[in-house]
Each structure stands twice: as C-alpha cells, then as structure tokens.
Amino acid sequence: MNLQLVDLVNQYKKIKPEIDAAIHSVLDTGHFILGKTVSDFESNTAKYLGVKHAIGCASGTDALQVALMALNIGPGDEVITTSFTFVATVETIALLGAKPIYVDIEPDTFNIDATKIEAAITKNAKAIIPVHLYGHSVDMDPIMQIAKKYGLHIIEDTAQAMGTDYKGKKVSTIGDIGSISFFPSKNLGAYGDAGMVVTNNDQLAEKLRMIILHGSKVRYYHEILGVNSRLDSIQAAVLNVKLKYLDNWNEARRKAAGIYNKLFENTPAITPKVKDYAKHIFHQYTLRVPQRDKLAEHLKSKGIPHAIYYPVPLHKQQAYVNLVSPNLKLPVTEQMTDEVISLPMHTELTFEMQEYIASEVKNFLNTI
Ligand SMILES: *Cc1c(COP(=O)(O)O)cnc(C)c1O
C-alpha cells in the first residue's frame, strides 16, 4: 500500500484543470507580485473568515513576525505562549529581541492552559500568542478576558487551524491579529511558501500593509521599519482555487478522524478529544500512546509514515535555552513530547489505508 503522511499530488490531480488555468492566467498578465490576483484572494479570505482585513504575506512565519512588529513588540518585552508548537512561534519573538514566556498546556487539547497564564504575567508582558494546535481551537474566552484585564495584545497563531471555529466564530478573527500559514501541507496549502495576517482593526491593517512593503505606503518613501514579505501572485491564484474546497476538505479530515477513533476504541491509545467550544479540523491526527518511540519503529518497519510533533519542546531547544528562566517547569508539555504520535491525515485517505494503519498500531499495542 502506498501510504503518505500528506498526499498533495492526488489532491492536485482532482483539481488540475482549474489550478493550471489559474496559474496560466497569472503568467498571461505579467503581474507576479501583488496586483488583482492577490487582492481577490485577500477579499475572498476576509469574506470566508468574517474579518475586515486580510493581508497576504510571504509565509506563516513572516505573518507572526509582521504581527509582532505592528504591535511594537521589541527588546525588553515578554510574549506569553506555549513551548509545544512549531519553532516559528518563538523564533519570531526572539528575532525581535523580545522574550518568550512559556505556559504549560492542557493534556487533552495540547493547547495553552488558560488557567496558568495569569501566574506568568509580569510588568514586561505585552502580548499572548495562543496557538490553535493540530486544528483544535484554543479556549479563547478566558484568554481574551486576561488580555483585557492586563492590557495585553493577542496574536492567534492559526497556521494549523485555517477554517476552524471557536464557538461558531472562525479562529484568527478573535484576537487583535491572526496569523495564517499556507505552507503546502497545511489545511489550505499553496504550492510554495505563503501566509496571511488578518485583523478587524483599521489602524493595525494599515500598519501591516506598510510593514510587508518595506514600511512604505508611497513607493520610495519609508515611514516605518518594514520587511519584504509580499504574497506571490501565482500562490494567490492557487489559493483562490483551493479556498473553495477548504470546508469540504476539512470535513473529509473530520470524517477520517472519526474512522480512526472507532478503529482505536478499546485500545490503550488515547484518541484526540474535541471540546464543546471547538470544531476540530484535524490538521494532525495525534494519538497519545505508551512506548511511543517503539511504536514509531514498528510503524517504520511496516512502511507506515508517521511524525512526532514535537519531539523537543522549544524551551529545551539549543537555540532558545538562553531565553528560559532556570526555574521553569512544564510537566504536561514534557509528558506530551514523550507520548504523541501523528498518523497519516489528509484528504485522500481511504478506509482500507486507515484500517491497515490502525491494525499495525494495534498489533504493536497488543505486544506491550
Ligand atoms: C507551519 C507553522 C508556522 C509557520 O508557517 P510557515 O508558513 O511554514 O512559515 C507557524 N506556526 C505554526 C504553529 C505552524 O505549524
């Protein structure tokens, strides 16, 4: 059986004529940076999310960075987030000279534990970055209340959760700024790097538009410090086609997750939980299992792709240990890094594939 963690080629084959036409139409215009293709995608995405402003940029990592820049985060500032996330969340904080402050996660959602945030707030705190990990929204209401009480900004890292809801509202539109990644393997993936920032705040939107364009509104006049992070027109054309399919694709992932859940009933594997406030879109289907590393070896020997997101939490990464307070304790984060394993999850999974994958997971679990 030809199994893949993510199957982008077979997904492309199903929409090939539309994608190819969209790419060719950009080639015919000769406009490769910004222009109508990008503004069309921005307005379609704003409409889809129910947000006032959507601003394309070059990647999800850049989206985080320009969001932090727009909120004037810099040296001496502290940004509260999770250690159980992709490196970009913390890399961008560190790049701007600010300090990441890690809060432990919930064992059932793997997301930041809102009940532990207040204890981490100091007079230097400026912002919180909740990360909607694996496609399950963070419990945003308590975080919004804390942000209000202490005057903190919120940037929602929505790289893994494009299209998911929190209490019926699209994530990325709840805090001050939402950052989105269109990395190819994300739920809405481009055919290269691409990203977006979204906001309901007019002033922030204007500033974000300037920052991604070298800090300028009028060409060659630079009012603020900026970067070069524009959304590529060809990527916008691809994304404009794929956006129409996003809800169906997210539904296909939810269905596949339901099948896995059934197949793992009555086994020691802990399947993903979905909270009442959330609508999980399963960017990842992640189990918690005993003897995770041995299971990974077993799956490898059977040709079953799998991944560990993430094997080392960020507070233990060499590049970032110097930013960690010596008495930091994140017991849940550390336990999860030992227990999690993600199985193949994409829009092209068949029942036969899932049955085979699950049977090999179960074969291993029966031996321990
Ligand atoms: C993928 C990802 C990013 C970065 O997005 P890129 O488009 O790859 O730069 C940021 N945060 C999280 C949680 C991610 O999963």
Describe the structure.
By secondary structure, this protein is α/β, with parallel strands linked by helices. The protein folds into two domains: 8-243, Type I PLP-dependent aspartate aminotransferase-like (Major domain) (Aspartate Aminotransferase, domain 2, 3-Layer(aba) Sandwich); 246-365, Aspartate Aminotransferase, domain 1 (Alpha-Beta Complex), CATH 3.90.1150.10. Helix content is 38%, strand content 13%. It is built from eleven helices and 13 strands. The chain has helices at residues 8-29, 36-49, 60-70, 88-95, 140-150, 202-211, 233-243, 246-263, 292-301, 331-339, 351-366; strands at 53-57, 78-81, 99-102, 125-128, 153-157, 165-166, 169-170, 177-181, 195-199, 216-218, 221-222, 285-288, 340-343. The strands form four sheets. It has a seven-stranded mixed β-sheet, with helices on both faces. A two-stranded antiparallel ribbon has the order 6-7. Strand 2 (78-81), helix 4 (88-95) and strand 3 (99-102) form a beta-alpha-beta unit. Helix 2 packs parallel to helix 7 and helix 3 crosses helix 6. The longest helix has 22 residues, at 8-29. The two termini are 26 Å apart. Pyridoxal-5'-phosphate (PLP) is lined by residues 59-61, 85-86, 88-89, 131, 157, 159-160, 181, 183, 193, 195.
